[in-house]
Design brief:
- The chain is built from 13 helices and 8 strands.
- With about 325 residues, the chain is α/β, with parallel strands linked by helices.
- The protein has one domain: 3-Layer(aba) Sandwich (Rossmann fold).
- An 8-stranded mixed β-sheet has the order 1-2-4-3-5-6-7-8, sandwiched between helices.
- Helix 5 runs parallel beside helix 9.
- Pfam families: BD-FAE (PF20434).
- This is BD-FAE-like domain-containing protein.
- GO terms for molecular function: hydrolase activity.
Length: about 325
């Protein structure tokens, strides 16, 4: 973490050196990570070959463990649940981290722009399909479900939450006694693209087409139908917006502040799910999930905070 500030905040510039820094740290804890990852299961959650997931189970009490569904980042065009890092460490490190803290971790792949011809709202479709798989896989069981998406993964979680096309799946996990959605963490998400780097224009147009301002996470939240808010409120679903201090200002931090401000202004006098805001120091846009599984307290502090928040939501829902 101490080496990150010198790298700057530009996402593309920090990517390679950050990966190198954390590969070295994760290799030092490889035996512990592999003790969990060797038991992981891989499943298809949809018909497209890209719609697959890895399932990491805690070693104890897995029968009633809470479930966390994570969608990785990658700028809509890249990323994978298993990156080509020596030793099969990324992102089995994240599966290890959450499983070792009593969560069943579901780490998904989703369709990408160009490679899989992903078009809006395919990211929301993939999240919805993964949730449907979870409800079927744990059918008849009471399970607390948490969503987690960073960067592009957070875009797709936002699409699922606020786009009317996914209302039926949202209702399924906010009503009843089976799998219940308790909260969603949106970490370092570009909620709008008004200040996006010019070289992202082609990808954004390829995915979103026209009406980018209405289809981006900010636009979807702003235009969300009352029925969406009612579903979230009925389920007492908490929306947890997070960022890190070395996120880029124009692409991430400014849109995050705007999203939070507009949410608070728009929902101040109306029923709405709770909004929780967190900022973690020391990390850049790439490092948070690479830091999980290092077993280094400073590196993993953001993840431990997240786990404590989720445990608090579980306890609160039981009262």
């Amino acid at each position: 973490m101490d080496r990150l500030p010198a790298l700057g905040t530009d996402i593309k510039a920090v990517l390679s050196p950050t990966m190198q820094i954390y590969t070295e740290l994760l290799q030092q804890n490889a035996p512990a990570i592999h003790s969990v990852s060797k038991e992981r299961e891989t499943h298809q959650y949809g018909q497209h070959p890209r719609q697959n997931l890895d399932l990491y189970k805690p070693k104890e009490n897995s029968a009633n463990s809470p479930v966390i569904l994570w969608a990785h980042g990658g700028g809509l065009v890249a990323g994978d649940k298993n990156l080509p890092i020596p030793g099969d460490l990324v992102y089995s490190n994240a599966g290890y981290f959450f499983a070792s803290r009593g969560f069943t971790a579901v780490v998904i792949n989703y369709r990408l722009v160009n490679t899989h011809d992903a078009k809006f709202p395919s990211g929301g479709e993939d999240i919805a399909a993964a949730i449907e798989w979870i409800t079927e896989h744990f059918q008849g069981q009471k399970r607390d479900l948490f969503g987690l998406g960073n960067s592009a993964g957070g875009i797709h979680w936002s699409t699922f939450l606020f786009h009317p096309a996914f209302q039926s799946t949202l209702n399924k996990v906010t009503i009843g006694d089976g799998v219940r959605l308790r909260g969603v963490t949106l970490l370092s998400v570009p909620f709008d693209f008004s200040k996006a780097a010019p070289d992202r224009a082609d990808v954004l147009h390829s995915y979103y087409g026209d009406d980018l301002a209405q289809k981006c996470p900010y636009g979807l939240m702003y235009l969300a139908d009352d029925s969406v808010w009612e579903s979230l409120e009925r389920g007492k679903v908490q929306i947890h917006v997070g960022s890190v201090t070395l996120d880029p200002e124009d692409e991430i931090l400014s849109p995050v502040r705007c999203f939070i401000s507009t949410w608070r202004n728009k929902r101040s006098s109306s029923p709405a799910p709770g909004l929780v805001v967190s900022t973690w120091g020391g990390h850049n846009h790439i490092s948070p999930f690479l830091a999980l599984g290092t077993d280094i307290a400073r590196e993993e502090s953001w993840g431990n905070d997240l786990v404590e928040w989720m445990r608090g939501e579980i306890e609160g829902s039981a009262n």
